[in-house]
Amino acid sequence: MKYLRRLREGRLHRFETVRAWPKDVAHQSGDEVVTFGISLRARTANSDWRETCELLSATLGSVLRQSDSRFRVIICGRDWPDIQEMADERIEFLRALVAPPRQTSRFERDKSIKRMIMGLRLRALGGGLFMQLDSDDLVRRDLVAFTLADRAGDGVVVTHGYVLDRQRNLIAPVPGVWPVEIDRVCGSTAIIRYEVDDIPSKAVFYSARPFLFMMNRNHTAIRSDAAEIGRNPSVVPFPGVIYVLNTAQNLSFQAMHRSGIWRETVLKEIRRLAITDRTRLQGIDSEFGTALAAGPDLAR
To answer: Over the stretch 241-296, which tens digit does the pLDDT of each residue have?
Structure first.
């Protein structure tokens, strides 16, 4: 009850702007723009802050090298990550003024609160195309360009991509490792257009009304939720994201596969289906900014 009262009153959504975008980034002269939203776990809620920053650096690197420059990034967290990508003026940092979670069972709630804060910022900007991007996943360099090719579109959903075992530096296709499309297992798979009325204000975050922005916290239902209100996001015709696993940061993988047997099954499937062709790996490196082709000889 205490949590719900604080939610209704908006006290969980308080934040301060540590660094804002310049005006020409925040308001790009009426041009369409994609906003990437990244929630970052607090240093004190981290088992390895250094790894967190390394993963975020790779994620931001994949965004900043987009072939179409019409994008911006919101990061919502507690602690400023000391990485070189943070010097880019297209990155805005919002500090969530809520205590970091002390228990792993509260990590998803903390992530939802930060998503709400980013929603408030997007609402203040008049809405627009928004992608919830996990701080350890990677996006293909043509994703923004494809999304913005249709100015009247409702957004896009990525259905095909890759999964990367970071510890072993092995990459495999999805579908493949899982028999389902990648938006069923990875949360970094949709860029959706949100109008102002799709995003609740602070006063009505807790509401019986089904705001699309809050419905889309469940990434596995984004396509059906959008269709329910007449939205029709396009399907990206190429592998659009890399889902990064086998790190201390990946909450969804840990939640889906709490059993060590399940975890090992997924990692074995990645190894079994791992892409080993150097030319193909070089293509992935070019598209996502990875360094897979420089790794050890993976020929089996």
So the answer is: 999 998 766 555 555 545 566 778 899 999 999 999 999 999 999 999 999 998 75
CA–CA dist 250, 170 (Å, integer): 16
Q: Pick from 130, 164, 137, 106: which is nearest to 33 by CA? A: 130
Q: Tell me phi and psi for residue 219, to 5 degrees.
A: -65, -25
The domains of the chain are located at: 2-158+185-238
| 36: amino acid identity, one letter | F
Nearest to 52 by CA among 138, 109, 135: 135
Cα dist from 151 to 31, 98, 109, 129, 184, whole Å: 9, 37, 34, 10, 26
Domain 2-158+185-238 fold: Spore Coat Polysaccharide Biosynthesis Protein SpsA; Chain A (3.90.550)
Structure tokens, 61: 């690197």
What letter represents residue 289's amino acid?
A: G
